[in-house]
Amino acid sequence: VELRESGGGSVQAGGSLTLSCTASDFTVSNSYMAWFRQAPGGERDLVVRINDDDVTTYAPRVKDRFTVAKDSAKNILYLQMGSLLPEDTATYYCAAGYGWPYWGQGTQVTVSS
Predict the structure, then answer these.
(1) Coil, helix or strand at residue 69
(2) d(Cα 95, Cα 104) in Å, to the nearest integer?
(3) How far is residue 63 CA from its own chain's centroid?
């Protein structure tokens, strides 16, 4: 199983970014998947999880600003991030499988004020 994140970058506060997590040897649809993030010196925190029935749970700090979505045809998990804040700066990781046995390598998001 391989998960590869992309789409990170630098953006000003208030801007938007869309992250992608491309899965290999793993089916995105009907699977538990999640986005986590880790700021420098911080712990890896859950941003959003989406279960096998596409029920989503967002962290309070990103609710109403971020949207997760699965593209079954492309086998990709997306994270649309809007109204970005400097505190959203972190490395974002894609995780998959019940209990998160699979992880990507991460993609950096930097939000400047």
Answers:
(1) strand
(2) 7
(3) 13
Question: Which residues fall within 8 angstroms of residue 55, CB to CB, at 6 or more apart?
Answer: none
Hey, is 86 helix, strand or coil? helix
Amino acid at 98: Y
Model pLDDT for residues 71-96, shown as the tens digit of each residue: 999 999 999 999 999 999 999 999 99
Evaluated on CA atoms 71, 7, 82, 1, the torsion sign reads positive
By the 10 Å C-beta count (0-12 exposed, 13-18 middle, 19+ buried), 68 is classed as buried
- How many CB atoms neighbour CB 109 within 10 A? 22
Q: Distance (Å, rounded) from C-alpha 3 to C-alpha 106?
A: 9
DSSP string, 27-58: -STTS-EEEEEE-TTS-EEEEEEE-TT--EEE
Which among 86, 28, 36 is positioned nearest to 58, based on CA atoms?
Answer: 36
